[in-house]
Design a protein that fits this description.
Strand content: 15-25%
Low-confidence stretches: 6-45
Bound molecules: zinc ion
CATH architecture of the largest domain: Roll
Number of strands: 15
Oligomer: single chain
Distance between the termini: 30 Å
CATH topology of the largest domain: Elastase, domain 1
Number of helices: 9
Mean pLDDT: 89
Radius of gyration: 20 Å
């Protein structure tokens, strides 16, 4: 849906709830559905699963499940709803061209450099598979849309495009000079989560709800990073730390202290709905989630130092990221609506915490404290 950075065609962001390439479930349509057609459907793909190895730009060396078909291997995963990867050849005419399927003769994919077109494909494929696994094992969710079908991840989209996007499928540019593909684990899982929110809440309306949409994607993007627990991508509460989007070596966003990016507020304030980028309005909810999971003040996680502040100087003790994620997902799927704003999000997560842990629980109390700590009361 909403592009996470400007699109190469400078297309204005689509109206919330609509896609840049208009396509709805069950409607046949240009690039996305043709790309999907590269995946044989249903029973046709059962039985051909093979285990290959890949080396991504960001994920390092990993095992992947591929499909053997007519003597060639494909990046199509029969065990994850036909999830697949398409090479878009650094073109951007997605309304005209379906892209090209990756195939391979020895089931060894990529070499970790951008010189191999397969490397970014391995990243996107592996990361989308990890997102699939995380949602399934944690919440029993069947795929991105809950329908058991895997999306296509389209890599090498556009020229020098430092952006990624969900639009029924998942689209990834190669970054500045085509040297930093936007296929890191947290970014792929962020886009995958756009598919989850699109098919559950369908956030729309004010940019507070768009901010909550982006925050949901950052939250689960981060949870998938922790779930994957890769040596090549040490789990952290940073977003986009592997892709050097702005060329300054810094992450795109910081959940423990969102203002470190120079743009995102740490705390709710009036007018936050007028921020021109929903990723910045997401800061308040990202910060809430970090505080709920890890607590305030100084902390070292996986060797990385955090120092998360609170609005009123209060001290918050975290309940752990697994519980925090359960509360957020339950609120997302049972409480949030398309126009949920920050005050509603507080109420919704409290209802979720009450349902999961009881109204007198430490978890419930910490949800209250963490929202208050980001000035949502
Ligand atoms: Zn996003």
């Amino acid at each position: 849906m909403t592009p996470d950075t400007p699109s190469p065609r400078n297309t204005p962001p689509p109206a919330a709830g609509r896609s840049l390439v208009p396509a709805s479930a069950g409607t046949s349509n240009n690039a996305t559905s043709i790309a999907k057609a590269a995946t044989p459907a249903g029973a046709a793909i059962s039985g051909g699963a093979r285990t290959g190895t890949g080396t991504g730009v960001h994920v390092g060396k990993v095992k992947i499940t591929t499909l053997l078909r007519n003597g060639r291997y494909q990046l199509t995963d029969p065990t994850r709803g036909g999830l697949s990867v398409i090479d878009f050849g650094n073109r951007d005419d997605r309304e005209e061209w379906p892209g090209k399927r990756f195939t391979d003769s020895d089931n060894v994919w990529g070499d970790g450099t951008v010189r191999s077109r397969q490397s970014a494909a391995v990243d996107a494929y592996f990361a989308a598979g990890k997102a699939w696994d995380y949602y399934k094992s944690t919440f029993g969710r069947k795929g991105m849309r809950g329908n058991g079908k895997g999306p296509s991840a389209i890599v090498h989209y556009g020229k020098g495009l430092a952006g990624a996007e969900h639009d029924n499928d998942l689209w990834f540019g190669d970054g500045k000079d085509d040297k930093n593909p936007l296929t890191a684990l947290d970014i792929v899982a962020h886009e995958f989560t756009h598919g989850v929110t699109f098919s559950t809440v369908g956030f729309a309306g004010t940019s507070e709800s768009n901010g909550l949409n982006e925050a949901t994607c950052d939250i689960f993007g981060t949870m998938v990073e922790f779930h994957a627990n890769l040596a090549a991508d040490t789990p952290d509460y940073l977003i986009g730390e592997k892709v050097n989007l702005r060329g300054d070596g810094n992450p795109m966003r910081y959940m423990g202290r969102p203002s470190k990016d120079g743009k995102s507020p740490d705390y709710w304030k009036p007018g936050i709905d007028r921020l021109d980028d929903a990723h910045h309005a997401a800061g308040v909810a990202n910060h809430f989630f970090y505080l709920l999971a890890e607590g305030s003040g100084k902390k070292v996680i996986n060797g990385m130092a955090y120092d998360s502040p609170t609005y009123d100087g209060s001290r918050v003790t975290g309940i752990g990221r697994e519980k925090a994620a359960r509360i957020w997902y339950k609120a997302l799927t049972t409480q949030f609506t398309s126009t949920t704003h920050y005050k509603n999000a507080r109420a919704g997560t409290l209802k979720a915490a009450a349902a999961l842990y009881g109204k007198t629980s430490a978890e419930y109390k910490t949800v209250q404290e963490a929202w208050t700590a980001v000035n949502v009361k």
